[in-house]
Amino acid sequence: TTQIVLARRPQGAVTSDCFRLERPALPALGDNQILVRTLYLSLDPYMRPRMTELRSYTPPFELDQPLTGGAVAEVLESRNPKFAAGNIVTGMLNWATHQVHDGRGLRKVERDAAPLSAHLGILGMPGFTAWHGMLRMGQPKAGETVFVSAATGAVGQLAGQLAKLQGARVVGCAGDDAKCGYATSALGYDACFNHRTETDYGAVLDRLCPDGIDVDFENVGGAIFHAVFARMKNFGRMVMCGAISEYQDSKPQPGPEKMFTIVQRRLRIEGFIVSDHMAGMGAFVTEVGALLKAGKIHHRETVVEGLEQAPTAFIGLLKGENFGKLVVKVG
Ligand code: NDP
């Protein structure tokens, strides 16, 4: 097999020498084991905190061991009664072209129900994150103003569209003009600003959300989050999904000014980790799968070819080089 291991832990920005490509021989298949060939590998922001030793909500990656992530794979051989050669499975797998696995935590998916990469994006973990965070936590109502940062990313693109379907006015920000154009033309955002060229975040939010913000779907953190916080309306909800702008900081950044705002405006600020809510996954797939089929939801992916490209693509993800859900086509 070809696999990528964690060669060293990053200090500040991730660099390519944090990864090493290896070609070990695979062990023979034991009882209850399966041999799988990876088809698609998901690259996700949460992998960055896992590269450090700091305790996060998922345990750190181990040095000199393959990194792991969400993947779609084909079963090539099986000595496990739950799987047969030819099955397509999804779950956590190594950054590897092939591996021997005990099948635990892998779920079979239909080969033709949706493009296979969709199980890692719009119908997978990021889509479910958007659905749970926006609908169950943010609960936007018709006429309310919703703000989504990283508006066209894997999570943001669905979060914004779901808020639109509830009748809200939706404003986002993204890292270049092409992403902002896609947000307003294809995804239905009412407005989207380029956070790299319009850097007076307070001024641009005052212009695009003149009455304030009812729901913040927070993906980015840092200065954008602070400007949004100051503009939340009474009884506003801040859905704390991520803070990607802070993941590579070697020194923690200070929080927003004037925390008494939370009391004055009766804000609800709530963090969540999607894996705590997996009971809702079935309802999500049914609902969003139907919206997708009916053409009511759009989505976009960046597909990178070849496992050996995964480190560069991952480094790019942390700089905004992906446009939509980032996946690696392995097989
Ligand atoms: P995306 O597809 O949105 O990719 C990351 C995007 O973040 C980049 O494309 C870029 O978009 C933006 N970005 C990167 N660096 C910066 C920066 N320094 N400042 C501002 N923006 C930056 O990733 P996901 O949709 O998978 O994840 C979005 C967020 O959701 C992340 O914070 C992630 O950790 C979080 N998340 C949380 C989960 C949970 O359970 N709580 C589950 C899944 C994701 P742009 O070019 O537009 O700036």
UniProtKB/TrEMBL annotation:
Q: Which residues form a coiled coil?
A: none
- Please name one Pfam family that this protein belongs to: ADH_N_2
Q: Which domain of life is it from?
A: Bacteria
Q: Which InterPro entries match?
A: ADH-like_C, ADH_N_2, ER, GroES-like_sf, MDR_fam, NAD(P)-bd_dom_sf
Q: Does the keyword S-adenosyl-L-methionine apply?
A: no
Q: Does the keyword Membrane apply?
A: no
What is this protein called in UniProt?
NADP-dependent oxidoreductase
Q: Which organism is it from?
A: Vineibacter terrae
Q: Which residues form the Enoyl reductase (ER) domain?
A: 12-328
Q: Which keywords fit this entry according to its UniProt record? A: Oxidoreductase
Q: Name one GO molecular function term.
A: oxidoreductase activity, acting on the CH-CH group of donors, NAD or NADP as acceptor
Q: Which CDD domains match?
A: PGDH
Concerning SUPFAM superfamilies, the annotation shows:
GroES-like, NAD(P)-binding Rossmann-fold domains
